[in-house]
Amino acid sequence: MDTETEKIVRNRVAELLNEDVEAFVVFVRKETEPRERITVIKGPEEAEKVALSPLSVNNTARVLLEVVNNFDGKVGVVAKGCDSKAIKGLISEGKIEREKIHIIGISCPGIVDYRKLIAFSPEDVIFEDGKLIIKPGDKEIPLEEVIHDNCRYCRSPSPVIYDEIYGKAREPFDGTDDDEIEKLPADERWKYWIDVFEKCIRCYACRSACPMCYCTECLVDPVNLAISPMSTAEEKAAYPRFLGKTVTPADNLFYHLIRVFHHAGRCADCGECERACPMDIPLRKLERKLQKEIKEIFGYEDEDIPFLAKLDIIPEGR
Amino acid sequence: MEDFEPKILVFACNWCSYAGADLAGTSRLQYAPNVRIVRVMCSGMVNPAMILYAFRKGFDGVVVAGCHPGDCHYNVGNYYAKKRIVLLKEMLDFIGFESDRLKLLWASAAEGKKFAEEMTNFTERIRKLGPQTKFRG
Amino acid sequence: MLVYEGDFLKTVASKLMKEGCRVYAPSEIAYTEINHDSQISDVKPKKSVKEFLFPQNEVLIGYGDWIEKVPLNRERRAVVGVKPCDARAIKLLDRIFLEGFEDPYYRARRENTIIISSSCEPDAYCFCESFSSPFSEEGADIFVSRIDGISFVKAVSEKGKEVLKGFESDLRNPTDQEIEKFRNEEERVRGLFRRSVEAEIQEKMKEKFDSEIWKEIAIGCVGCGTCTFLCPTCFCFDMLDEGEKKGIRYRAWDSCQFPLYTLESSSHNPRREKWQRLRNRFYDKFLYMVESKGNVFCVGCGRCISECPAGVDIVEVLQEVSR
């Protein structure tokens, strides 16, 4: 993803919007800080706003899922490796129709933690050939230095599903998913997580930012969304409420365990939860552990059938 | 610790395990009185949140009991249960919670004896582990 | 304004600690408890100071066979190095919790918490200049400004004067030169702001209520509660019961960004769509609160911008509105 790719994508978006694509989920550069945000453009004249750089951090799949049914025609989307993984998952779960979307796949060199760049003004930050150039003084910073931690563990920087593909991908991660926490004794592990989740303010940014969290009613919302004018007070009171709004570390851990559990075999590894977290909680550790166990115990990894729906993978002796 | 009596919650499926527990009762088999049974329609409906909720409410051990693989009244419910419990145990271990406090048990309607024995064994195991304080709210 | 030779924050923190008062100071995440004056840092914490007066969870009553009153929290605490924006937010929160119906829980915490604010320099997200200044003493009990090794100290409230009584011999009146220095520093910091908003935007907002821009802005928004939970002036809460026969009734922060916030039991939801909820946040702060309380309920701390997962930017949004 450098300025070259950005130009190609910009042209392609304009061309496609002239053809059969009705709207495009793309990134645009923010004016006041070196950061990009997702928006939906509807006409080729808007295509000049399109930006694409290692600052295109957010997962476009979430916005795609939100807007895809607002249009009758095709909706285009710019998707990095992890975005495409999420889109693939959403397609296999029947949330998006493959025919309704056009995916511009982007082989991704990794994305940047914008917080490391906030000292610079947005027009001064340029990405070229895997380097980051700060205009005043032409200071060069290797991308690897400011890259988001999650990207270092990325196993599929290239899109897994696309209609066309551009850009140059980073080397996929090929190490182990073992976490150093696993080696600690149980009590220390518990202490570690309790300390970590003491910080959680339960803003639900992790849930909201996740492309795979699309339930209209979440387990942690304290009232059943499906109440009707006819439901009696007894009915409402009897509806199971597992977790209120108490923010004790153990309850926060409860929430995060359940949230992670709902991503068993579905996680797109995009790291949106961790990036979204205002309290810098290492949420990906939980996700990675779960995906690792699914791979080790059930031998399931990135298949077309959702993990829970696959019934022939029951491990013996456990 | 001396007079610690564990509290154990059992989610028993309506078709096999609950009938199994019933059989244990009608055959006048004795098993640990620490066990409280919640009848669910299928072990596949036991949400991990229900298990954690039980721990949060102060239970020291939780058992999910269902039909033997292949015997599920709904064909595949217990396969879901198996996946969930195996993974939940791994995750509980990862966060430093004693995963031994959670058990998945296959007990058919004819296995009243097995049910009673498993309950007694499990109660003893929890008694050794001591009271569960980590999730207790 | 008085002058103290040296770092007054450290001195006052040590003294309060010696008196057995719990002292809190800024750290990366929140204002956290310290046990030595060297732990006072100058960072802007991610969580605002509001949790000291209005904690995320507060037990209101206990219930069982009979309703039990929960004793009010009267623990004596001091927060030192509070950012002026956070201190100013307390003044705004006072208007909510103490005007008209008085909230006893808030009142008790307010009376027993000493706020010692300290002037600061803006970071990339700050825009407090648009409403007040990084040298504002509003909301604080004692305002401190540390410039070139000396501290300018001002007792703002009665509580503050009480604390300063112990330091009378160390404090002196500033010389004209020092006053000059203070003014210069204020001027210099004023020039450091990169962002600003127009506070008198109410008329424009009335016009833009039905504008399409809100839908556009909301596209990226994920609909979480980060902006409202981190906001020092957001005060919405929800009351919940924990326990069936016996338990507690507590209040917990709530956010207008959650769909459940406005859900009525008839299942009608007046702010059903995400863009309506997002719009409400700006209208509440810049229009509704001005109409009902006469203040803009934004202090310009910039937390909602820096921590937003999707890059929704209150400064950009308000610029869009005033266009």
Descriptive account of the structure:
The complex is a heterotrimer of chains A (318), B (137) and C (323). With 318 residues, chain A is of the alpha/beta class. Chain A folds into two domains: 3-166, no CATH class; 180-298, no CATH class. Helices cover 31% and strands 14% of the residues of chain A. Chain A is built from ten helices and nine strands. Chain A has helices spanning 3-18, 60-67, 81-92, 143-146, 186-198, 205-209, 233-238, 249-261, 272-276, 283-298; strands at 21-29, 36-41, 50-51, 74-79, 101-106, 125-128, 131-134, 139-142, 164-166. In chain A, strands 1, 2, 3, 4, 5 and 9 form a six-stranded mixed β-sheet that branches. A three-stranded antiparallel β-sheet of chain A has the order 6-7-8. In chain A, helix 5 (186-198) packs across helix 8 and helix 8 (249-261) crosses helix 10. The longest helix of chain A is centred in the N-terminal third of the chain and has 16 residues, at 3-18. Chain B is α/β, with parallel strands linked by helices and 137 residues long. Chain B has a single domain, classed as Rossmann fold (3-Layer(aba) Sandwich), CATH 3.40.50. Chain B is 40% helix and 17% strand. Chain B contains four helices and four strands. Chain B has helices at 17-26, 48-56, 77-94, 112-129; strands at 8-13, 35-40, 61-66, 102-106. A four-stranded parallel β-sheet of chain B has the order 2-1-3-4, with helices on both faces. In chain B, helix 1 crosses helix 4. The longest helix of chain B has 18 residues, at 77-94. The radius of gyration of chain B is 14 Å and the shape is globular. Chain B starts with 7 loop residues before the first strand and ends in an 8-residue tail after the last helix. In chain C, the strands form two sheets. An eight-stranded mixed β-sheet of chain C has the order 3-2-6-7-8-9-1-10, sandwiched between helices. By secondary structure, chain C is of the alpha+beta class. Helices cover 34% and strands 19% of the residues of chain C. Chain C has twelve helices and twelve strands. Chains in contact: A-B, A-C. Chains A and C meet through strand 2, helix 2, helix 6 and helix 9 of A and helix 9, strand 11 and strand 12 of C.
